[in-house]
């Protein structure tokens, strides 16, 4: 038996293709995913079964889609079955994707009869061309995320904004990338005789009283080079033959000083609690990262995708309490798990000590802090801050009694190292504390 899946178009009966209409006319067993579609009263079928009862009885879409699929596959074991869905079967239809996967496993052939999707009438209503980089997504997929998977420099059309509740959750995710006041367009019933277009600020999309099961959201390009991809193009252009002579001459090593300089400027903006300066300095630091990635790409070392994939996988691996089934009760446990997983990942026999993990090029005071942190993990630590303070007094005395300058310099280094350790015991970052003291001195000078 054959399972025929066809599209009913965006809403008007005249938009149903001749093949789909004929399949409906000759159907012996017909199913509709939903009867909530404008053309249903005009379909050329005397009887059909819809799955609206499943939608009404469950809020779990995975369960709903699986149930629909199993019913259709069971029916197709004994009869030729026609399954009609809104729009086009290959656009925003989760049940169709499941059927395409499962039907062959059960020996059931599938025929797809395409239809006009919601996209074509939406493009006509908006007056835009899809070839200009239009992104098409399911709003329900974006709702489940914390950051939208969209390039803000390109337009986006989001389907299935069928309720104010969905719109409310959707705007929260979108506002992690787009400004709250950004003007967007709600398309209600695109392709139907009562289509409505509503332009509203993003923060207000869930206030629309016109939202219904045929509502989609259009996000115009944000512009102003807002995407990571646009920035990568700028850097690649600078490195191209027709680009900038200075940028083309740079190497990983020649850029080293700029990476260090930009990092310290970020720290300066943080210390000043200047958000505008922080945004600018983070951009300068990002420039260094993307420039290194572009150089590596040109020499076949790695690409930006490798960087992002590596760090993304690492974050997921090292947060099993978020993406796995590990339970934690405190931030301290998170740190312990992180270190344990990190050790499992490294598996580097060349490292003879846990102190080898501390980069040697860190600022000296900060490196002293990190060394004492690492040493404390296996128990090499003073039990209390008071005992560290006593050690500090001892080291100060040794500075005072040193017999010559080299000996005095050595003992002063011990003092600074113990100060870093004491700061750690008190929960203070000595590097940040010293930067703050420097800034205070400059203000008072």
First CA to last CA: what distance? 89 Å
Radius of gyration: 31 Å
Question: What is the global morphology?
Answer: elongated
Unreliable stretches: none
- The overall number of domains is 5
> Could you estimate the helical fraction of the residues in percent?
40-55%
User: Briefly, what CATH class of the largest domain?
Assistant: Alpha Beta
DSSP strand count: 10
Structural summary, described in words:
The protein is an alpha/beta fold and 445 residues long. The chain has five domains: 3-116, Tetrapyrrole methylase, N-terminal domain (Cobalt-precorrin-4 Transmethylase, domain 1, 3-Layer(aba) Sandwich); 120-219, 2-Layer Sandwich (Methyltransferase, Cobalt-precorrin-4 Transmethylase, Domain 2); 228-299, MazG-like (Helix Hairpins); 303-338, no CATH class; 356-444, Orthogonal Bundle (Helix Hairpins), CATH 1.10.287.1080. 49% of the residues lie in helices and 10% in strands. It is built from 18 helices and ten strands. The protein has helices spanning 18-25, 52-57, 61-76, 94-102, 119-126, 139-143, 164-174, 228-239, 245-249, 256-272, 275-298, 304-317, 320-323, 331-346, 364-376, 385-400, 405-425, 430-444; strands at 3-7, 29-32, 49-50, 81-85, 110-113, 135-138, 156-159, 183-188, 196-201, 215-219. Strands 3-2-4-1-5 form a five-stranded parallel sheet, with helices on both faces. A five-stranded mixed sheet has the order 6-7-10-8-9. Strand 8 (183-188) and strand 9 (196-201) form a beta hairpin. The chain starts with a strand and ends with a helix.
């Amino acid at each position: 038996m054959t399972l025929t899946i066809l599209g009913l178009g965006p809403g008007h009966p005249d938009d149903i293709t001749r093949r789909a209409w004929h399949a409906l006319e000759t159907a012996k067993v017909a199913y509709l995913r939903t009867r909530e579609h404008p053309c249903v009263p005009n379909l050329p079928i005397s009887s059909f079964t819809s799955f609206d009862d499943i939608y009404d009885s469950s809020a779990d879409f995975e369960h709903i889609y699986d149930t629909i699929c199993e019913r259709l596959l069971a029916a197709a074991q004994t009869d030729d079955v026609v399954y009609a869905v809104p729009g086009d079967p290959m656009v925003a239809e989760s049940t169709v994707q499941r059927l395409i996967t499962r039907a062959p496993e059960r020996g059931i052939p599938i025929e797809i009869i395409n239809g006009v999707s919601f996209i074509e009438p939406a493009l006509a209503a908006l007056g835009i061309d899809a070839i200009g980089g239009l992104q098409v997504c399911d709003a329900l997929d974006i709702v489940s995320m914390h950051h939208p998977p969209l390039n803000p420099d390109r337009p986006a059309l989001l389907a299935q904004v069928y309720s104010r509740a969905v719109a409310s959750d959707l705007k929260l995710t979108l506002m992690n990338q787009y400004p709250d006041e950004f003007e967007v367009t709600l398309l209600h019933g695109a392709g139907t005789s009562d289509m409505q277009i509503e332009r509203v600020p993003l923060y207000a999309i869930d206030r629309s009283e016109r939202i219904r099961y045929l509502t989609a959201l259009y996000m115009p390009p944000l512009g102003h080079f807002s995407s990571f991809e646009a920035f990568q193009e700028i850097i690649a252009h600078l490195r191209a033959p027709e680009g900038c002579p200075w940028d083309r001459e740079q190497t990983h090593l020649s850029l080293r000083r700029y990476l260090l300089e930009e990092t310290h400027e970020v720290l300066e903006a943080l210390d000043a609690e200047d958000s505008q300066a922080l945004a600018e300095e983070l951009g300068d630091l990002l420039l260094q990262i993307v420039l290194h990635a572009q150089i590596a790409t040109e020499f076949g070392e790695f690409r930006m995708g490798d960087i992002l994939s590596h760090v993304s996988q690492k974050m997921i691996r090292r947060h099993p309490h978020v993406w796995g089934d590990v339970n934690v009760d405190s931030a301290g446990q998170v740190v312990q798990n992180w270190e344990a997983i990190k050790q499992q990942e490294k598996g580097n026999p060349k490292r003879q000590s846990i102190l080898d993990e501390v980069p040697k090029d860190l600022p000296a005071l900060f490196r002293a802090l990190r060394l004492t942190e690492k040493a404390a993990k296996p128990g090499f630590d003073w039990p209390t801050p008071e005992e560290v303070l006593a050690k500090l007094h001892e080291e100060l005395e040794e500075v005072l009694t040193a017999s010559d300058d080299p000996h005095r310099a050595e003992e002063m280094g011990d003092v600074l190292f113990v100060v870093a350790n004491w700061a750690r015991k008190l929960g203070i970052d000595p590097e940040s504390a010293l930067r703050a003291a420097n800034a205070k001195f400059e203000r008072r000078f």
